[in-house]
Amino acid sequence: MKKSLLIILLLFCSLILFAKEFTISEFRDLPADFKAQREPVLDMDQNYCAVLRVESVQPVEVSLRERTYKKEKISSREHYLYFSAKEKNLTLQSAGYDNLTLEAPKQGFKPGTVYYLRLDTIEDVDVSINVTPRGANVAVEGKRWLRSTQKLTPGTYTVEISKEGYMTLTEKITVPHQSASFSFALTEEKSGETITKTDTVFVEQHAQTEENESTLPYLEAYDFSYQITSCDATHDNKLVITILITNLNIDDREIDVIRGTRIFDDHGREFGVARREMGNKISTWQGNLKHQMISNVTTKLTLTFEDLPRSANSISLLELHISDWKLPFRNFPISRI
Asked: Are 115 and 109 in contact (CB under 8 A)?
C-alpha cells in the first residue's frame, strides 16, 4: 500500500514539474466593456475594482492567486476577474499549467478599468528517452524520469543519466512542438584509464587513411561500429560516402537506415540522401533500408548525395539516421575524383 502511494506521489510531482505553460499574446486596457462595467464592484477600501477579461485559446479554468472580489465565467474560454486596482502584479492559476505572473502597467492598474488579456498555450508533447544499456537512472532537470515516454513542454532541458559501472552522462535536449525521441549510449568505466567525453553521446574517433594524411571518422554506438572509408565527389556533382558497419553484438541484428540521413557542407548547405545501398539492397529517396547484420561481420553502406557544389571542400556534419537514433560524424574532407 505504501509503495503504491509513493508511486502515485512521484507521478503527481512529475506532472507538476512538467506542467503546461501560458504565453501572453495580447494585454491592453479596454476603453469600454459594458458587460463588466454595468455592475461595478467595490474592493475592501470601497474603491471600484479593476477587471481582467481573460480569453484563452484552449478551454481552461483560470483564477487569480490574489484576492478576487468577483469572478464571472462567460464561456469555457472567457472569464472576468475583479481585483483591487492596488495590486502591483497578478498571478494567473490553472490546473495543469505553470502559474503566470502579469505585471501592472507602468502607471498601475486603474479603478473601474477593464484590461483585456489573451492567452496562448504551450501544449505538452510526448518525449521518449532511450538509453543503452537498459536499467539506467534518468533525471530531467533533477527529477527522476519514471517511464521511457512522458510529457514535456517544448523547451530546453538538462538530462542526467547514470548507471553503476558506467560514466555519468549529462546532456542538453531541446524538445520541439511535436513528439520527439532521444537516444543515448553510456560508456563503460575502465579502471586505470581516463575517458574524455566528446561532444556527442557516442564514442567517436578518427582513423588515418592510407591515401593521404586526412582523417575520416570512426564511431561506436549501440553495439555497432561505423568507419567512414571514403568521401568522394564525382564529376557530375554527386557525393559518395562509404561506411563500413560491424555488428559488435554476439547476436545477429537488423539495422534500418532511415531516409532522413543528411549532410551539411563547410558552407552550411544541407543535402538529403538520394540513394542508399547496403549488401544487395538499394533504396532511393523514399522508404527505409533494412539489412540483417551478422555478428562481427562487416557490411559496406554507400550513401549518394546529389547536386553538391564544387565549392564544397569538406563535410561539417553527416547525420546518419539509424532506427530510432541519429549518429553524428563531424568535420571530414571531400576528395574529388
From this structure: yes
